Amino acid sequence: SRRRRKRKRRSCTSTPRRQGAPAPRRRVTASDLSLSCLVADPNHTVMEEIIPVMILYRCVTQVNIKGVQRRTYEMCVMCFAALGSRLGAPRVFFFPVSFLAVEMRNLKLLKSLRSTELRGPGSPLRLSVRADTGSLLVASHCSITEYDPRTGQVVSEASLTAGGFLPEDGGGAVVGLQDLAELESACLSTAGGDVVLFNFNTCQLECVGSVDSGLTSMSWSPDEELVVLTTGQETIIMMTKHFEPITEVGIHQDDFGEARKVRVWNREGVLQATSEPINGLEQALCWKPSGSLIASTQRHPNKHSVVFMEKNGLLHGDFTLPFSKDHAKVRDLLWNSDSTVLAVWLEDLAAGEDQQVNASIQLWVAGNYHWYLKQSLDFGRDSRKAPVCVCWDPERPLRLHVVTRGWTSVTYDWGWATERSPGTDAAADANVAVIDGDKILVTNFRQCVVPPPMCSFELQLTSPVNQVTFLCQPQGTNRLAALTSDGQISVYAQGESCDRDVRDAMRDPSEVEVDGVVVSAVHGSQTGTVALQLEDGQIRKLRWGEPPLLSVEDWRDASGCSINFPVPCVQTALCSISGEEYLLGLTDRSHLYAGDTELASNISSFGVCNDFLLITTHSHTCRCLQLTTLSVKGLQAALASDGGQNDESLRRVERGSRIVTVVPQDTRVVLQMPRGNLETVHHRALVLAQLRKWLDSLRFRESFECMRKLRINLNLLYDHNPKVFLENMEAFITQLGSISHINLFVTELKEEDTTSTMYPRGPESSPVQTRPVSGQKKVDVVCDALRSAMESMDPNKFFLSVLTTHVKKTVPELEVALQKVHELRVNPPRAAGAVSAEEALKYLLFLVNVNDLYEHSLGTYDFDLVLMVAEKSQKDPKEYLPFLNMLKSLETNYQRYTIDKHLKRYSKALHHLSKCGEEHFHEALQLVREQKLHSEALRLYAADGAHYKALSCAYAEHLMEQQQAEQAGLLLWRCGEPVGALQAFASSSSWRNAICTAQQIPLPADQLALLARDLAEKLIEQRRFAEAALLLDQYAKDCEEAILALITGSVWEEALRLIYMHDRQDITETNLKPALLEAVGTQTAFLEAQVAAFTRHRARLAVVREQKEKARLGMLDCPDAELYSEASSVMSGSKYSQSNSRVSSRSSKNRRKAERKKLSLKEGSPMEDRALVYALGEILTTEVHGLLKALVLFQFDKQAEKLQPAYEEALQAMEAAVPEVWLTGPNSTANSIMASFQQQQRPAAPQPGRHRLSSLFIHNSSCDVCLCN
Question: Phi and psi (nearest 5°) for 1145?
Answer without folding.
Answer: -85, -5
